[in-house]
C-alpha cells in the first residue's frame, strides 16, 4: 500500500518506454509530447497514484523549460572540461534538472562576458542560468550581476557579493584536513593551489587557521601556485622537493587530481607516503578511494550541490528572495595520511 | 606574417571579452548577438585576418544552431553521469560544437525511447542528435533508426547496423593489451566487463583472439561480469581471488575505473601488482598515469572522438552520406603490467 510513495519518475519512464523528461512533460500536459504518449504516461501515473508537484507545474507555464548551464574553464588548461570534480557536479545538476522537467543547455566558455544574459535569457532560449565556476578573482560575475539575477553560481560566498552562490564550506574543509595532518605529527605542511580563485582563497584561510591554532608559522616558500591538474601537482612537488634547504613532511592540495600528481612524484623519488610525507587532497572524486595509497581528502557533496543549485534557481524563478547556500564538508581519512587501509 | 593562421576563435573571444560561441555567431552575423558586439568581433577578426568557413555558415542558415547530446546511462548505476571516460568525451564534444557555433542541449536518460526524435528534431529544438552509448545489446537505437537519421552514435560499428557510429577499434585495443600480458609471461588472464554492451562484446573478441594466437584456451570461470565502476571491479576481483582452485596471473578490465578497483583489492589482500598479478585497464582516463602503480591501459582518443562525432553529424545535416568511423587505439604500458616507471 506504499507503492504510490515509492514510484519515481524514472520508474514511470521505464514502464512507458520513454525518457524521464518526457514523463515530466507528459504529466504537465505539455503539447510538445504527442497525445498518445501523454495519455499513456498519465494513465500509468494514475494507476500508481503518482503525485505531481503542482506549484512546480505552474512555475513553468509559458517558459522555455530550459536552463543554461555555463561551465567556466581555466584558460590555462586549454581542454574543455577536464576537472573530474566539476564533471561530477555537472552530472548531478543534469540529474536534478531532468527530475524537474527542465532541459539543460550546456555551454563551456573561458570568459563570462556580458553576452551571456542576452544570449540565453533575453532571447528566451533559457529561463535561467547555472554558472559553474567563478574564475580567478571572481571579477567576471560581478559584471553579470548588474543584469536580471536569473542565475546562481557554484563557488564561494564572499562578503559584498551581489549574487547567490551554492558551494562547499571551503575554509572548514581545509581546516579539518590540515588540523588532521598536524594531529598526526606533521609540522611542515605545503599548500598546493591557486589562491586567486575565491574558493581556493577560502581554503588557504582554513590552512592558515589550522596552523595558527597549533602555533605554527606558515612558510611562504611552501605555498606553491598550481592549476587543478595532476600534471601541475607533479611539477610543483618536484619543485619544492628539489629546492635546496626546503623541507616538508606533509602536502595539502586543493584538489584530488593535484594530490595524485604529488603522490606520483614522491613515489618516483623514493619518498614514502605517508611515512615521510603525508598527503591530503580535496573533493573526494570517485577514483580517490581506489588509488594506492588511497587518498585522504575533503568530501564535497556534489549530489546535494546539484540539488541546491537547481532549487536556488527555481526559487528565484518563482520570485522568492535569493539566498546563498554553504554546504557542509567531511574529512575522509585514508592511507595517504594514516597509512591504514581505508 | 603567420598571425592569421594561428589566431583561434578562443583568441578572438579573449580579445573581445565575450565567449567563443558569441564570436562564432557574431562572425556569421547572427542577429541574436547585439550589433555593437557583432561589429566589435568582426573588426577584431578582420584586423587579424581571421578566416570564416563559409560552407559551415551556409549550412546553418534557418536552423536552431543547437545539437542535442543524449547520454545513455546504465540503469544499474543510478547516478547520472559517473564514468570518467564518457565525461571526458562529453567535454570534447562540447568543445567541438562550440568551435562550430552550435549550442549543446544535454540530456541524460536510461531509456532511448521513440520520443527522442519528436522531442528534439520534430520540435525544431535541435538540428541533430549525438547519442553517447548504445546500451546493453544495442537494441534501443535500432528502434530510433527508423526515423530520420539526423543522429550519430558513440559506440561499436556492427554488421547490419542501420545508423552511423563513431567509436574506437575495441577489438584491436583488447587484443593489444592481452597480447602484451601474454608476452610478459602471463597465461591465466581474467576478463572483467559486461559483454552485453556492443563495445565490450568487441573487446571480448579481441581477448579471445590474443589467447587463441598464443594457443591458450579461455577459461570461462575467469570471465566475470561487472558494470563500469571501481566498486564492481573490486568485488569481482575479490570473488575470483576467494574462489577455491581458481588461479590467475593477470586481469584485463574493460575500463580504467574497473582496473583501479581490482588493484585496490589485490593490494588489500597482499597480492603484488604486477609481480604476482598484472593488470590492464581500457580508456586511459587522466588519473590512470597518476595511480600507484600507474595503469597499463588502451588509450581511446576522446579529442578525435569529439571531432569525428561532430563532423559526422554536420556532414549528415549537409546532406552527405553517413559513414561510420573507427578510431585507432594505442596500448600504453605502465607499471601495473611492467613494473617499470612510466
Q: Would you give an account of this structure?
A:
The structure is a homodimer of 342-residue chains. Chain A has 342 residues and is an alpha/beta fold. Chain A has helices spanning 3-6, 9-16, 20-27, 35-47, 54-59, 84-99, 116-122, 139-144, 170-183, 198-213, 230-242, 256-268, 302-317, 335-338; strands at 66-72, 103-109, 128-132, 151-154, 165-168, 189-192, 223-224, 250-253, 278-280, 297-299, 325-327, 330-332. Chain A folds into three domains: 3-52, Orthogonal Bundle (434 Repressor (Amino-terminal Domain)); 66-167 and 301-327, Response regulator (Rossmann fold, 3-Layer(aba) Sandwich); 170-300 and 331-338, Rossmann fold (3-Layer(aba) Sandwich), CATH 3.40.50. Helices cover 42% and strands 14% of the residues of chain A. In chain A, β8, α12 and β9 (278-280) form a beta-alpha-beta unit. The longest helix of chain A is centred in the first third of the chain and has 16 residues, at 84-99. The first copy, chain A, is elongated. Chains A and B meet through α2, α3, α6, β2 and α7 of A and α2, α3, α6, β2 and α7 of B. Chains A, B: Keywords: DNA-binding, Transcription, Transcription regulation. Chains A, B: InterPro entries: HTH_LacI, LacI/GalR-like_sensor, Lambda_DNA-bd_dom_sf, Peripla_BP_I. Chains A, B: It comes from Paremcibacter congregatus. Chains A, B: This is LacI family transcriptional regulator.
Amino acid at each position: 500500500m506504499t507503492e504510490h510513495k515509492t514510484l519515481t519518475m524514472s520508474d514511470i519512464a521505464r514502464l512507458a518506454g520513454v525518457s524521464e523528461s518526457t514523463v515530466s512533460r507528459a504529466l504537465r500536459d505539455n503539447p510538445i509530447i504527442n497525445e498518445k504518449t501523454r495519455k499513456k504516461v498519465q494513465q500509468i501515473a494514475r494507476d500508481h497514484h503518482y503525485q505531481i508537484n503542482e506549484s512546480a507545474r505552474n512555475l513553468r507555464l509559458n517558459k522555455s523549460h530550459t536552463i543554461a548551464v555555463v561551465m567556466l574553464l581555466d584558460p590555462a588548461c586549454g581542454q574543455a572540461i577536464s576537472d573530474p570534480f566539476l564533471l561530477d557536479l555537472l552530472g548531478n545538476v543534469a540529474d536534478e534538472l531532468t527530475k524537474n522537467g527542465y532541459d539543460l543547455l550546456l555551454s563551456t566558455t573561458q570568459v563570462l562576458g556580458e553576452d551571456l544574459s542576452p544570449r540565453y535569457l533575453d532571447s528566451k532560449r533559457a529561463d535561467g542560468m547555472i554558472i559553474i565556476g567563478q574564475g580567478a578573482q571572481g571579477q567576471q560575475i560581478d559584471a553579470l550581476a548588474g543584469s536580471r539575477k536569473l542565475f546562481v553560481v557554484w563557488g564561494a560566498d564572499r562578503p559584498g557579493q551581489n549574487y547567490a552562490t551554492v558551494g562547499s564550506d571551503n575554509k572548514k574543509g581545509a581546516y579539518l584536513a590540515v588540523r588532521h595532518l598536524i594531529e598526526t605529527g606533521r609540522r611542515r605542511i605545503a599548500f598546493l593551489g591557486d589562491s586567486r580563485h575565491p574558493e581556493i582563497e577560502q581554503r588557504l584561510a582554513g590552512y592558515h587557521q589550522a596552523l595558527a591554532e597549533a602555533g605554527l608559522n606558515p612558510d611562504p616558500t611552501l605555498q606553491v601556485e598550481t592549476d587543478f591538474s595532476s600534471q601541475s601537482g607533479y611539477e610543483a612537488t618536484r619543485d619544492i622537493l628539489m629546492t635546496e634547504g626546503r623541507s616538508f613532511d606533509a602536502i595539502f592540495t586543493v584538489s584530488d587530481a593535484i594530490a595524485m600528481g604529488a603522490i606520483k612524484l614522491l613515489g618516483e623519488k623514493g619518498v614514502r607516503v605517508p611515512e615521510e610525507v603525508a598527503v591530503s587532497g580535496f573533493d573526494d572524486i570517485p577514483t580517490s578511494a581506489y588509488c594506492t595509497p588511497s587518498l585522504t581528502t575533503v568530501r564535497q557533496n556534489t549530489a546535494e550541490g546539484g540539488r541546491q543549485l537547481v532549487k536556488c534557481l527555481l526559487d528565484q524563478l518563482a520570485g522568492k528572495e535569493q539566498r546563498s547556500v554553504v554546504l557542509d564538508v567531511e574529512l575522509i581519512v585514508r592511507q595517504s595520511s594514516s597509512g591504514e587501509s581505508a
